[in-house]
Amino acid sequence: MLAICFSSSRSLPRTPFAIRTIFPALLHSLNRKSHPLSTKLFSTQDVFAFNVKIGCLSRSGNIAAARQLFDQMTTRDTVSWNSIITGYWKNGCFDESKRLFGLMPTKNVVSWNSMISGCVESGRIDQALQYFQAMPQRNTASWNAMISGLVRYDRVEEASRLFEEMPRRNVISFTAMVDGFAKIGEIEQARALFNCIPQKNAVSWTVMINGYIENGKFDEAEKLFEQMPDKNIVAMTAMITGYCKEGKTDNAKMLFDQIPCRDCASWNAIITGYAQNGSGEEALKLLSQMLKMGMQPDHTTLVSVLTACSSLASLQEGRKTHVLVLKSGYESHVCICNALISMYCKCGSIIDSELAFRCIDHPDVVSWNAMIAAFARHGFFDRALASFSEMRLNRVEPDGITFLGLLSACDHAGKVHESLSWFNSMVESYRIIPGPEHYACLVNILSRGGQVEKAYKIIQEMPFEADSGIWSALLSACHVHLNVKLGELAAKKITELEPQNSGAYVVLSNIYAAAGMWREVTRVRGLMKEQGVKKQPAYSWMEIENKVHFFSGDDASHPEIHRIQLELKGMRLQMTTNNDIEEVFSELSS
Question: Which of 90, 310, 335, 410 is spaced 20 to 30 A from 119 at the CA atom?
């Protein structure tokens, strides 16, 4: 039967049905030593069938089986070589692709293009350029692959030169350069090039819209989106992200609801948007809807939901999400474990933070930073330092965030001398340039330690203008240590930077009151009214039976306010009674 099917005297049609019929018999013969493949077995149709199968196996990740078929072919064409070469680099084995390319008897332009793409995917952009320059002939796809690769690795100037040299351009060429110019902030040049595209496709429109969003030009993105003839899900998802960046979550949700067939990326965009805008409860509701619709969350979804749990300080919801992480098989995923460390830390469970950290096989700098910050937040100064030492033993290089965590640990523990030592070590030993957040932390530590004048000196010596956060740290210290002169200066700087910052007025008023300067107290309060500055009410929250309850000063809107007030009266009465009993016993003992 096999001889009949593969006889060279019979021609086989190149149809999917014919291929499906050939494969079982062919593969059966490959596994039997009694039927070795002879040269005459491999007709053109046979080679075609093997090539298709090699491509299928490669795409499914079974590169070993694809190579076995390739090695068993007694006759190979250029497509056979191209298929196995592409398969290897797509499965992370670029060096084997390179070796086979060297052995390839006859190369065509597709072979060279495959090697360029393989270099780009493997992070070897310079080798890609070498292959591009060595090509005997190039087609438009060759130029596009090289230009896109250079843009991907932020070598936009080189990509631009190639684009100018390109003999024939198509929509892919233009779109790659639009993306490149947008990436380096040349958004006007990107738009000019976008306008030159003769026949724009959905990708062109989406890249330009996304370019505007990433460069903080949302109004232009919105106008362009309205002009887009056929709005696809990618463009709509980009706009959802843009709306959320602008804080317009209602608009984002309206657009999200218009998407007929939502994919994971669109769900991620809206969930992330709510989480980053402080609407953690809405983010959790959307996750519930996503799961009910049968959509499986990916690592991006889970990171965003964990961020929402962190913002709500909801340990119960955090644990539920952790269960979902385990069910989804992401228990050792670095990004998710990092999010778990932060979530458990902010929800008050430092033990769970450490357990999540220990699940990571190879912690990166973000993992170590999260753990150091967690120990710092909970006041474990020695554990934070021990984590830093362990980090260095694992040969992970610290960054600015690492030292911010160490300074925070010093802040919580009141370690003034150690904070100066770590700050100097960051600059001198690790050559890390301190940012405003480092100076703010240092100023806060010195201020709280009573060294207000030294804190002010550091502000004066900073290589940039202090922001309101740094001045606020100094102002708070002036309140504690009753330094009227520096308090006035700090309050003035804050109100110049943030005219509607009520905190500066309130703290300065309190400083004057503590110093007995009542005329100044009246003046500051009058100034607040004159400027239309309103004191921002503080609020707190707690989670009871899977529901988060918010409370703010002078707010009686809670549905259980009467019961709450009754309980508070009872507590107040009990404390008063206890104090009276203590006074009675004190008098009797005397």
Answer: 335
